[in-house]
Amino acid sequence: MLSTSKPSTDDPLARVFAPPPNESQRDKENRIRAEQEAKKRSDAIDEEISKQLIARKNSKPVKILLLGQSESGKSTTLKNFQLMSSPKAFRAELPSWRAVIQLNIVRSVRLIVDTITMAHQVGEGYPPLGPEQLKLRMKLSPLLRVEDILIQKLAPNSQHHIKGESTDSVFDNASNAPEAPAVPIRTELTVNSRSTWKTAFKKWAKGVEEIDFDDPADPGRVLFACKDDMIALWSDPIVREILEVARIRLQDQGGFYLDDLPRVAGERYTPTNDDVLRARLKTVGVTEFRFDLGKSEFLGKFGPGASLSSSWHVYDVGGHRSMRTAWVPFFDDMNAIIFLAPISCFDQVLAEDPSVNRLADSVQLWTSIVSNKLLADTPLVLFLNKCDLLKAKIEAGSHFAKHIISYGDRPNTFEGCSNYLRKKFAGIHKEKSPKPRPFHFHFTSVTDSTTVEILRHVQDDVIMQNLKSGGLL
Ligand SMILES: Nc1nc2c(ncn2[C@@H]2O[C@H](COP(=O)(O)OP(=O)(O)OP(=O)(O)O)[C@@H](O)[C@H]2O)c(=O)[nH]1
Ligand SMILES: [Mg+2]
Hints:
The chain is an alpha/beta fold. The protein folds into 2 domains: 61-89 and 285-466, P-loop containing nucleotide triphosphate hydrolases (Rossmann fold), CATH 3.40.50; 93-278, no CATH class. It has helices at residues 12-17, 25-59, 74-85, 87-92, 94-122, 131-139, 141-154, 194-205, 219-225, 227-235, 237-245, 261-264, 273-278, 295-302, 358-371, 387-395, 400-403, 414-432, 451-469, and strands spanning 62-67, 190-191, 282-283, 286-292, 311-317, 336-342, 380-385, 440-443. It has a 6-stranded mixed β-sheet with strand order 4-5-1-6-7-8, with helices on both faces. It has a two-stranded parallel ribbon with strand order 2-3. Helix 3 crosses helix 19 (451-469). The radius of gyration is 30 Å and the shape is elongated. The two termini are 47 Å apart.
């Protein structure tokens, strides 16, 4: 039988800690002095343990993983981290990005030329080409030769110049694209790691610090020579009509510079920071960017006792479906994940699977990340990205509810659509997280360099959350 002791006023612990009976005044003073010294020693030990705990935490870098489907803006976010932490190094790389931007421009022109050629062959359903368009097409052929030169310079061992082999659809909605003969699609240039392509470029450019404008082999010369013809092609009403019939909206694609041709194809063009953020180079594998957060700035905000490591590692992975299995090994050890969901893609399909709507793919991917048990303790930050494009699309008359049926008859406005999606993503987060965790989100257009301010907020959130979970706050 269990017995319980009677409630007693005689507390055994109080008895242990009570001063000895009949203690003299002198004994009492000695005892108190001894107790104070013992407390001092114990406090010093506690402080040392706490210092060691912080030091251990400090020695590990803060790790951030960028996730999201292909073209969601992961690499662009990484560029913003570079811009924020090392603006000088970012500027030093502008000449290397110049080649990528030139390639993006040439690719846009090639897509137009290929599309009008296809329209010319098909005839029916397309406005006929006149002598003006045919002449422009001929005059631009030297420019198209620059494409292979640029690819070979940027990725000497690549196969990307092989025509007809495709991983990326050029149609914004391939299921609605006209029947064959289709526009020949070129594979996108990919980058295996930041250093590889820049090293390759460095060899060619003999140092990234300076652009050799006087180099007779500089592709910028051909672009400049073709500038007026490119402008004429892009502003030609028949060309625009053909693109519309073929449902090709270059404005919505990465690496779009055709509205800036007078500047970007101008003589002695040097890219701006914003130009670099808009450059498109597909990621294959993993790119890592390390930087050191200014210690003084950090300690000013959080106090010396609250210091995490000031060393940050940001990981950028390829978002193409075939590359997503490579994400898992990174799940283990991250202090936060930034997940990018491009919300302008409600009317687009995946390049790798034209039967899948891009927004639906993002929702599905978000659901699987949120519910992943390996990530149960990892703070997630959601970037509802490409807000600028969503706004432009809606203002141009696209109907959100036509593609996202559940939106019903709510108003077709940017605010309405973006908030609807925010609620959807937040709801999944709440419902599917294995454990409750705070929901952090931002509406972003990461091609805008003001994103740096958002990243500063994210950093503060990551620091606070990790300090709290580590018991250091
Ligand atoms: N207008 C606009 N363009 C954006 C935005 N975010 C990204 N882009 C552009 O979209 C293209 C694709 O962005 P990336 O950052 O390369 O996409 P990613 O997620 O790294 O794609 P993968 O490497 O294929 O996984 C780039 O040309 C970007 O400049 C945005 O918010 N607005
Ligand atoms: Mg990328």
